[in-house]
């Protein structure tokens, strides 16, 4: 037995290492079961004590309970980090297909766009949605058909169309690449384990988020452009004057000499009469006693007001240097409906979010409200000091993706570049905003064109079905080997157990993700693993048929089968490498477990089975090959 000591130590070391690497997975499973039991008990308590709670309120309460349990024990998070990760199809989650709007990017790059350009852009985006041709190529073709050189809107006058097209294509390519990196940064900071982010075609990005719990929050995280702007709020007199003109245009009036306060003083009119006489102010309510001219709009009237503000005759009375924006969150509630604030701000921002270097979500010690502190670079801090110093007493709206988060008064000059965003409902929302600001702004808007959700229960069913398949596959192969090769078949079945153990150990050691196709790879490995045993056993039979001793037959059988085993497995392994390199998602999961399975099965067949046979020969035991 001494001559086999090193082999025994190697095998025991491999088994021990696999068990050690798999222990966090086992512990994580136990932790999840305990947390599920606690959450289930809490759900029952809530139903009994507060039966009128809405489903959303119950889910939020249970999420807080689950988060508090995990936060109370750091070992839970550490164990989860070291365990085998489950893919989207096994633990549930979201699969989202995003499309980068390169058309909006071209609109930003264009110089002096006119009605012709806007018409071309609208037509090109419609055509791009129905074809694989890039927006750049479509826009270039449409402009050329109209006899317009691309230099009219892009590049310099001296540039040829081909040069401009190349540059715009490069900008579009860079926009998609940058969008992928920004989305990856946001997802990583959000804390999703083993996300999959990959490109599809010229302008689409596929994002898979396993185990995601809050779908709407995740969608906002992915598609928010993070366009941060600081815009001056127009003073009350100018705002009321513009609102008055809008109201008069909508009412069909031509006399614009009536002041806004007179318009709002119509106590004797019924609501129907007031709405007919003052269409705008019947939706956008003004407080005449307030020092500001902010309008208050019910959530069910927001879309109606947007349509009103987009009417051509209304746009004609709104100056080109101002624009309206709604608040990001409701101001309050009235008659059960959320009320939003409508601001009038300068169209040109005083400062943009490109100067933000850091953001931190925290609690305001004075108000106990969630806030986000921002730090600017030196250039931004200098500009911010100049802007705040020149506008003391005025309001500056902090606008993110077209929504006003807050519009604080400038009390004094801010020389440090430190600023603050308020208006978040809770710390989770503040943390989400922090992630978006820190990860950077998307170069072009993205839209969700496809969305699929896999529920946790469906994922759990997939795990059970996959585990059942592995067990059935193992039993069938083991029974066949034992029936055909008798005692040697038992050895082969034993080696299969070690093969599966090594596969799972390697997956855990490299923090790989196990998917449903990955389970299929394990099942295929079980079937392929005994191929080596069959080759070896048949060679041993041939050697024994020539009259050689058992020891010589075993040595000869392994020696002669080695080349065939290695050749066949190498070709399969190379196929796995190709699948992993050029495949995506499920294909990669299948290829990964297949490659690990091949290496594990070779070790089991050539090392473990060989050792067992050698020990049996040394002890004089009969090797029965059926």
Element layout with pairings:
Elements: H1 5-49, H2 55-72, H3 74-82, E1 85-86, H4 88-91, E2 93-100, H5 102-109, H6 115-128, H7 135-145, H8 161-190, E3 196-200, E4 204-210, H9 215-223, E5 228-232, H10 236-251, H11 260-264, H12 271-277, E6 285-286, E7 295-298, H13 302-309, H14 312-315, E8 322-326, E9 332-334, E10 337-346, E11 351-352, E12 356-363, E13 370-376, H15 378-390, E14 396-400, E15 403-406, E16 418-421, H16 427-439, E17 446-454, H17 456-485, H18 487-509, E18 513-514, H19 516-545, H20 550-582, H21 586-618
Helix pairs in contact: 1-2, 1-3, 1-18, 6-7, 8-16, 17-18, 17-19, 18-19, 18-21, 19-20, 19-21, 20-21
Verbal overview:
The chain is α+β, with helices and mostly antiparallel strands. It has helices at residues 5-49, 55-72, 74-82, 88-91, 102-109, 115-128, 135-145, 161-190, 215-223, 236-251, 260-264, 271-277, 302-309, 312-315, 378-390, 427-439, 456-485, 487-509, 516-545, 550-582, 586-618; strands at 85-86, 93-100, 196-200, 204-210, 228-232, 285-286, 295-298, 322-326, 332-334, 337-346, 351-352, 356-363, 370-376, 396-400, 403-406, 418-421, 446-454, 513-514. The protein is built from 21 helices and 18 strands. It starts with a helix and ends in an 8-residue tail after the last helix. 35% of the residues are buried. Residues 255-264 have low confidence and may be disordered.
């Amino acid at each position: 037995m001494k001559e086999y000591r090193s082999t025994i130590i190697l095998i025991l070391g491999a088994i021990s290492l696999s068990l050690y690497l798999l222990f966090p997975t086992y512990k994580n499973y136990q932790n999840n079961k305990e947390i599920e039991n606690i959450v289930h008990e809490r759900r029952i308590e809530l139903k009994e004590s507060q039966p009128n709670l809405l489903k959303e309120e119950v889910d939020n309460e249970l999420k807080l309970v689950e988060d508090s349990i995990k936060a109370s024990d750091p070992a839970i998070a550490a164990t989860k980090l070291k365990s085998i990760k489950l893919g989207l199809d096994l633990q549930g989650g979201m699969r989202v297909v995003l499309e980068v709007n390169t058309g909006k990017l071209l609109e930003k790059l264009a110089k002096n766009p006119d009605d012709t350009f806007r018409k071309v852009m609208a037509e090109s985006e419609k055509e791009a949605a129905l074809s694989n041709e890039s927006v750049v190529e479509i826009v270039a073709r449409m402009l050329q058909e109209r006899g317009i050189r691309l230099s009219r809107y892009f590049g310099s006058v001296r540039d040829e169309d081909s040069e401009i097209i190349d540059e715009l294509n490069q900008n579009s390519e860079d926009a998609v690449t940058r969008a992928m990196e920004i989305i990856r940064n946001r997802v990583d900071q959000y804390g999703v384990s083993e996300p999959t982010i990959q490109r599809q075609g010229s302008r689409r990005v596929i994002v898979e988020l396993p185990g995601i719990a809050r779908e709407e929050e995740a969608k906002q995280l992915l598609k928010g452009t993070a366009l941060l702007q600081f815009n001056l709020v127009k003073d009350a007199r100018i705002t009321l004057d513009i609102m008055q003109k809008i109201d008069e245009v909508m009412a069909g009036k031509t006399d614009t000499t009536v002041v806004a306060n007179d318009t709002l003083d119509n106590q004797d009119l019924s609501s129907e009469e007031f709405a007919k006489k003052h269409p705008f102010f019947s939706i956008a309510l003004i407080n005449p006693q307030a020092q500001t001219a902010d309008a208050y709009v019910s959530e069910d009237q927001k879309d109606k007001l947007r349509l009103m503000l987009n009417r051509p005759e209304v746009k004609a009375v709104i100056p080109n240097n101002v624009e309206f924006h709604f608040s990001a969150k409701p101001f309050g509630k009235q008659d059960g409906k959320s009320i939003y604030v409508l601001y009038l701000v300068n169209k040109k921002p005083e400062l943009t979010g490109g100067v933000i270097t850091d953001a931190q979500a925290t609690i305001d010690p004075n108000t106990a409200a969630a806030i986000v502190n921002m730090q600017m670079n030196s250039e931004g801090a200098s500009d911010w000091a100049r802007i705040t110093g020149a506008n003391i007493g005025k309001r500056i709206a902090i606008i993110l993706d077209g929504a006003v988060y807050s519009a604080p008064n400038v009390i004094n000059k801010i020389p440090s570049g430190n600023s603050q965003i308020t208006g978040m409902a809770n710390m989770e929302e503040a943390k989400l905003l922090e992630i978006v600001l820190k990860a950077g702004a998307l170069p072009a808007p993205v839209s969700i064109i496809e969305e699929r959700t896999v529920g946790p229960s469906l994922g759990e069913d997939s795990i059970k079905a996959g585990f059942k398949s592995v067990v059935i596959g193992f039993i069938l192969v083991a029974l066949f080997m034992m029936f055909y090769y008798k005692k040697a078949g038992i050895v082969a079945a034993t080696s299969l157990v070690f093969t599966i153990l090594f596969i799972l150990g390697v997956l855990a050691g490299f923090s790989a993700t196990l998917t449903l196709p990955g389970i299929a790879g394990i099942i295929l490995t079980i079937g392929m693993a005994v191929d080596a045993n069959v080759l070896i056993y048949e060679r041993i039979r041939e050697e024994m048929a020539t009259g050689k001793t058992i020891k010589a037959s075993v040595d000869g059988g392994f020696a002669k089968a080695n080349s065939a085993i290695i050749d066949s497995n190498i070709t399969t392994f190379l196929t796995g490498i190709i699948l992993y390199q050029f495949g995506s998602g499920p294909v990669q999961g299948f290829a990964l477990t297949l490659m690990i399975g091949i290496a594990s099965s070779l070790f089991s067949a050539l090392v473990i089975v060989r050792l067992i046979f050698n020990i049996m020969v040394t002890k004089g035991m009969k090797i029965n090959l059926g």
